[in-house]
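Example record used in the benchmark description.
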Amino acid sequence: MERLVVNMNNSNPTNQSLSQLGLKAFVTSTLTTCRSATFDVDTNLRLLDRAWEAQKQIWASQEFLAF
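Model output (structure tokens):
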């Protein structure tokens, strides 16, 4: 997992936007829920699909920031 770099002068993340952090938290929470909860297969698949879409947004924004 990617490490968060924090600028100690203003305590703001320097390598990720807050929206990326929110998406990462969503992905992590969703994957944890899928592993630990007892949902039916359809619910797990929907949760994983949402996490996958969020992860694709993170990757797309990282590619955009790289240019």
